[in-house]
Each structure stands twice: as structure tokens, then as C-alpha cells.
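Researcher: If only I could read C-alpha cells as easily as an amino acid sequence. Walk me, if you will, through where the backbone shape changes along the chain. I have put the entry right below:
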Amino acid sequence: MLATKTKTVRRELKSILGENLKEKEVLAPYTSFKIGGEADYFFRAKRIDELTNAVLTARELGIPYFILGKGNNVLVSDEGFRGMVIKNECRKTEVCDTTIACQSGTLLKDLVNSARENSLQGFEFLAGIPGTVGGAVFGNAGAFGKSIGEYTEEAVLLTSSGNIEIVGREYFDFGYRYSKLKKTMDVLLSVSFKLKKGRKESIGKRIEQVWEKRKKSIPYNKKSAGCFFKNVKDKGISAGYLLDQVGAKKMSVGEAKVFSKHANIIINSKNAKAKDVKKLARILKERVKKRFKINLEEEVIYLGKFNQRRLPIDNI
């Protein structure tokens, strides 16, 4: 019975999504960790209608799905993902006066460049943050005391009921590394941001300054997901500081190691397994809790058997 159902689902998917649907696609190359097994199905969406069609099809057929952006904030299980990964590559961007409207698959670096080219200031703090706009809004990405939610004006969603809705900033209930999208099955399709006019040269200089600061602590040339744990905002303490105090920089499990220049970054030093990264993260959390009585919370999303909760989009 199960085999028959699987064949029926496969046939339905193929007939609806066409030749762009792949099967048993290894996910490691699509993530910054370069770790992870196969997804049962893999689909690239380059247009909004393709994205919505893939999501609605997965829901209708009862297939678990995960929307992947740039793959910068996700750790995929060694066993992969039993469902469909939808790669969001919808990247159209429009600028009108002080408003930038873009589709959710737009790369953050392109958003920053669009703002600079149009002499719009405000997004300099995003320079050097990898990922997509969708992932950034999903997790309210930020740095240097600012976050993307502050600039969000309006968005278009595919709701959990299958409708297309336009919502304002208040819908998202933005918080530290949080948006309402983390609790709903709503999918971000596009979003508009309100910025301010500035001098292109000054904006460019600030972007360069942010880049230089990031390069001192972020291993852009290594396989990692950036900061692994959230800062402890209610206590005003960075996760990196806590991890430093428990000797994190000297720790490793297999080929998963803590970066020598930043205690809150785990790197895949060669061919690490997801289970090694997960185990190292667990040990780090236990050490911090034992010494400081603080529970660290992951920024990274676990995708696969060690994460049963289905999420509609990533950090990306």
C-alpha cells in the first residue's frame, strides 16, 4: 500500500511540476555547511507562480516541504529530508523613489547593492550577511543594533489556507531573530522596504566599513552557517562571550570544529557529518547551561530526522 501511494504521489508531482522536479537530490551543495543527505524531491522555483504552485501541490498531496533560500542558516541531516525541498530563486527587484520591492528569493547582497545604486540608505548593516530576503525576513536578520523588520513596509503572502494576501509590517510581530512566519505556514512571496535618500558615496563607504568589520570574525572562506546560537537578549549577553568562557574555541567533534576566531561559529573543517555538528552544538549548550544556568537557542535550523517540525522557509 505504501509503495503504491508513493508511486501515485511521484506521478502526480511529475505531472504538475514537470521536468524541473528532481528526485533523490543531495542537499549538501545547496548549503553553506556543505553537509546533508538526499531530499526525496527537489524543485527550483524561478517565478512566483512556480513557487506557489510547488507549495500548494505539496500541501495537497500531503508531502512535507521546506523552502530553501541560499542555505546559509540550515543544517541538513545526514539522512536527508523525506519530502520536497523547494529552492526559492524568485529574484525580481523594483525601486520606486525610497521604496524597494523584491521577491523573496532575492539575494541580500543584491538588495544592499540596489539600495546603494539608488542612493538609498539604511541597509548598510546587511552588507556581508549571506542569504535571501525571504530568509532574512523570516528570522528578522540584523546586526549592529538594526534589523530588517524595522524597514519592512508591506508584504505579499501565500497563506496557510492557500490565499494570496497583502499584509503590513504589524503582521510579522517582529522580535529578536523572530517573525510570525516561524509560527505559521504562511509563505513570503515578496516584500517592500521603506528607506531614506542618502549620498551614494557615503552609503558605499559605510558598506565597506561593515564588510571590513565582518571579515575580522566571520570565516567567509570556510564551510559554516555563521553564528550558530542566538544572543541572550534579555540579559544583554552575546552567545559568543558565554561560549568563549567555557573554552568553546578548543572544542571539536569529528571534523566539526568551533572557529578559532569566533566561539559562536561551528565550521565543517573537511567532511564533517551533520551528527557531529549537532553533537558539538549539544555539548556547547550543556557547558553554558552548567556554568551560567542559561539555555542557548539555535539560530540554525535543523532539517531532517532531528527536526520533526515542518518549517515553510529558511536563513538563511
User: Anything to note?
Assistant: The two ends are 37 Å apart (CA to CA). The chain has seven helices and 19 strands. Residues 2-88 form a domain with the Uridine Diphospho-n-acetylenolpyruvylglucosamine Reductase; domain 2 fold (CATH 3.30.43.10).
